[in-house]
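Bug #77: duplicate submission created two jobs. Keeping one. Sequence:
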Amino acid sequence: MSSQAADLTSLGTPQPPIPPPPFNVPPAETLTPSQISQNPSLALEKYKKKDAVKVIVRFRAIGNAPILKQNLYKINASNKFQAVIQFLRRELNYKASDPLFLYINSAFSPAPDEIVANLVKCFNTDGHLIINYCTSAAWG
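Kept job's structure:
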């Protein structure tokens, strides 16, 4: 009997079983429209998450705009285009009153509230988002 008692103590006290979660919630990325309509808080959870994906942005100077020492940068895809504008102003040491115009692929200027991921999906070139910048209006 002493050997059995030794065996039981070496195992330690038994732990209570882990209870199952109150309900099974699939990850937010795999939600179907019917699941979202049944529980809208799941949809909110999906959109509250920040996207950690980074995209490569290539800056190109036009006209008399100063040239950056480094023209390739990685930024979060979930950022708004306003963050790109502010970043470029910091890199160029421009004040808010200094004129700065940004264009995508030498064609158009996106709205400041546009999401960078959407711009990359639609207008990427070789996996980069090419942003031309200048101190006077050039296109569009």
